[in-house]
Amino acid sequence: MVMLADTDAGSVVTAAQSGAKYRYMLVLPQLLLIPVLYLVQEMTVRLGLTTQKGHGALIRQTFGARWAALSAGTLFVACVGALVTEFAGVAGVGSLIGISKWISISVSAIALITLVLLGRYRRVEHVGIAVGALELLFLPAALVSHPHFSMIAHDAAHPLMMNVGFMTLLAANVGAVIMPWMIFYQQEAVIDKGRRGLDARSALRSARLDTATGAVVTQVIMVAIVVASAATLGVTHRGRSLNDIGEIASALTPFLGRREAIIFFGLGMIGASVVAALVVTLAGAWGISEVFGWHHSLNDSPARAAGFYALAVAGTVVGAVLVLVAPNLIKLSVDVEVLNACILPIVLGFLLALERRALPPELRMRGARKAVTYALTVLVIVFGLMTAVMTVRGLL
Predict the structure, then answer these.
(1) CA atoms of 108 and 115, how far apart (whole Å)
(2) What is the number of alpha carbons within 13 Å of residue 371 lying toward its C-beta?
(3) Tens digits of per-residue pLDDT, 75-133?
(4) HEC string for 40-52
């Protein structure tokens, strides 16, 4: 579920922009990001299953209350920002079919709050995956766009351009592969989910398989979005700027037809935005509740875990209200991307430190795997900060 959420509204727009501007050149980087995504998220799996503590609680236990408060503060900011992006995506889809953002955002916010308050991790996960599966509609969109396989092969053999525009989009794609809230969500989710009937070794193997499958699926979806845009706009209107889902659907309408553009990209974006909003809501409530030592399981009733459920509801409401009152959703989404990039070094730094200090020696990374994971993590941080710097320079 967290991997489906990784292909959120901002990622969809970034992938579409990549195909429209540089055809298939960013297909190969999307595939190369699969091991990056897996290696980082797999650390949260080991931490959660081994310690049976969420990310915030483990930071508090290992480094103390002040560092835990810092992690909670960065998580809160990241989650509110992410919810703004997801609700902006929902509003964009609503505008395609003539629904005002007041209706589309209100309905989606109420649905999310209701689902969370009903509780039970298994129920939330099943609904989240079912909604997130709408992202698979991006796959037929890529097929009906009639991609040029000779161009794909050519661009895969020449995957880099040394100019500011290309490097900005490359940085955006790499920097967006890990969101700060993903780490908090997955570490707590593997605990809340439980794996009945499995011993510790089998549970870890099962969770790793889930993570690997999700990493492949989410990046294949990103490839499909790049291909659909590259096969259409990248050929006939190369370099066209796409800033939101409305512009993407409108640009693809002459190639796919209005109905297909709305179905494939509209419903795909709904799936991406809603599952991401659900994951973000829970990640924020889990992380902050852990730091304060509150009950925070979805398997607890709202009466038993009042603080946790109140945080989930409050985060959803704040994100929805910010989008409803914001005069410029595109600028707001850009600001969120910059914010996430700035927070990422703190979150990944804590993750690497916990892996080294909170796990027993036999479960820590060693040798080549440790070197590769550290190198890839630093790469993600660097590209994330590059995204922030280039975005800010572009706005000045």
Answers:
(1) 11
(2) 2
(3) 888 888 888 888 988 888 888 788 898 999 999 999 999 999 987 888 998 999 999 99
(4) HHHHHHHHHHHHC
Evaluate if residue 313 carries a pLDDT over 90.
yes
Structural domains of the chain sorted by starting position, each given as residue range(s) with its CATH number in brackets: 2-395 (1.20.1740.10)
- What is the spatial distance between Cα 228 and Cα 99, in angstroms, rounded to a whole number? 26
Q: How confident is the model at residue 314 (pLDDT cuts 50, 70, 90)?
A: very high
SS3 state of residue 277 = helix
Task: Give the DSSP letter string of 78-112.
Answer: HHHHHHHHHHHHHHHHHHHTT--HHHHHHHHHHHH
The identity of residue 231, as a single letter, is: A
Give per-residue pLDDT as tens, 27-47.
988 998 999 899 999 999 999
CA 246 to chain centre: 20
Whether this model's pTM surpasses 0.85: yes
Nearest to 340 by CA among 381, 307, 373: 381
Give the integer Cα–Cα distance in Å for 124 and 317.
Answer: 19
Give, to the nearest 10 degrees, the angle between helix 121-132 and helix 180-193. 130
